[in-house]
Specification:
- Keywords: ATP-binding, Cytoplasm, DNA damage, DNA repair, DNA replication, DNA-binding, Nucleotide-binding, SOS response.
- InterPro entries: DNA-binding_RecF, DNA-binding_RecF_CS, P-loop_NTPase, RecF/RecN/SMC_N, RecF_2.
- It is found in: Cytoplasm.
- Pfam families: SMC_N.
- With about 350 residues, the chain is α/β, with parallel strands linked by helices.
- It has two domains: about 170 residues, P-loop containing nucleotide triphosphate hydrolases (Rossmann fold, 3-Layer(aba) Sandwich); about 180 residues, RecF/RecN/SMC, N-terminal domain (Glutathione S-transferase Yfyf (Class Pi), Chain A, domain 2), CATH 1.20.1050.
- The strands form three sheets. A six-stranded antiparallel beta sheet has the order 2-1-4-5-6-7, with helices on one face. The protein has a six-stranded mixed beta sheet with strand order 8-12-13-3-14-15, with helices on both faces.
- Helix 3 crosses helix 4.
- The mean pLDDT is about 95.
């Protein structure tokens, strides 16, 4: 898969831009605050209908304007597909092949991306919410049913928490109804995640062995907040533990267990990676990103588009080489950088763009 062209209108600091790309490597050079990351963000937005930098859609619309439009054409193994997203204060509309999509899960997965940004280096030692977001974004692109189950779970969770917060006298019959709905969707979310993390761990282990010259073994472990002895008993154990926590949840006015509390752990040579060096963390994240490429390819038949946002300067010569070797033949990649001096082992052919004050050359 590769994106052939993209059109931006009133996106961040861009008025109106139309650009064509190489199916291989594309490099965006420019000083800070000129719009390099905004451009990569727009590609990410076209894929996932959201930004990786802000939760506020309003921030994406150019100052003084009321709406934005991002559109593009992607090439997949089965042909060209036009995509379009319009965003205003009235909401957003998404189109695939010029047809409006009624559900987010019908749109996401059409164009897949893997993003490697500086904040990903916090994945090992950062908050659990970062690791849950990592799972949700990648698994959501691979399995549309996961997005549906997760959306239903979050909707039920919000209902349950609102009920706990706003009612002094709890109707346990009504709470039991919410429990059953939460367990139904939540158990499916846990099972999706379990299978994904098993596959991710297997694939990332292969890449990490290569990057570490066969000296380090990586393992990714999923930590659901629900305790169970067999995957077949997740739903039963979830409901039992939720019921046991009723008094705690009523006192705290929130739901204490479920997929919204899940986490990941990373181990290098069976030692928790949080105790590792910065270099080990970089290799670990790089291994995860390369594993994501392969898992999405396996699920969809197309390699995703790789977005490298100002991270090449964070990688030494050896890790840059391993990354570029992995993507040079099969993957369309976009790199942002302030200078080509940060890049080593570049292939002979690539397309170079200079960005200055929201203009692209």
């Amino acid at each position: 898969m590769w994106i052939k062209e993209i059109n931006l209108k009133n996106y961040r600091n861009y008025n109106s831009i139309e650009t064509n790309f190489s199916p291989k490597l594309n490099i965006f050079v420019g000083q800070n605050a000129q719009g390099k990351t905004n451009f990569l963000e727009a590609i990410y937005f076209l894929s996932l209908t959201r930004s990786h930098r802000t939760r506020s859609d309003k921030e994406l619309i150019k100052f003084g304007e009321k709406e934005l439009m991002v559109s593009g054409v992607i090439n997949r193994v089965n042909g060209k597909i036009p995509l379009e997203i319009n965003l205003s204060d009235k909401g957003r509309t998404t189109k695939v092949n010029h047809l409006k999509q009624s559900k987010l899960s019908d749109y996401i997965g059409t164009m897949t991306v893997v993003l490697f940004a500086p904040e990903d280096l916090q994945l090992v030692k950062g908050a659990p919410s970062l690791r849950r977001k990592f799972i949700d974004i990648d698994l959501g692109q691979i399995k549309s049913i996961y997005l549906s189950d997760l959306s239903n779970y979050n909707h039920t969770l919000k209902q349950r928490n609102t009920y706990l917060k706003t009612h002094k006298k709890i109707d346990f019959n009504f709470l039991s109804v919410l429990d059953e709905q939460l367990v139904n969707y939540g158990s499916r979310v846990i099972e999706h995640r379990l299978n994904f993390i098993n596959d991710l761990s297997t694939e990332a282990k292969k890449h990490h062995l290569k990057i570490s010259n066969q000296t380090e073994t990586l393992r990714v472990s999923y930590l659901p907040s629900i305790k169970y002895d067999d995957q077949k008993n997740i739903q039963e154990n979830f409901l039992s533990q939720l019921q046991k926590n009723h008094q705690r949840d009523i006192f705290k006015k929130s739901t204490g267990i479920g997929p919204h509390r899940d986490d990941l752990e990373f181990f290098i040579n069976e030692i928790n990676a949080s105790f590792g060096s910065q270099g080990q963390h970089r290799s670990l994240i790089l291994s995860l990103k390369l594993a994501e490429l392969e898992l999405i390819k396996s699920a969809s038949g197309d390699y995703p588009i790789l977005l490298l946002d100002d991270v090449m300067s964070e990688l030494d010569h050896f890790r840059q080489t391993k990354l570029l070797e992995s993507i040079s033949e099969n993957v369309q990649a976009f790199i942002t950088t302030t200078s080509l001096e940060h890049l080593t082992s570049l292939p002979k052919e690539f397309q170079l763009f200079t960005i200055k004050q929201g203009q692209i050359v």
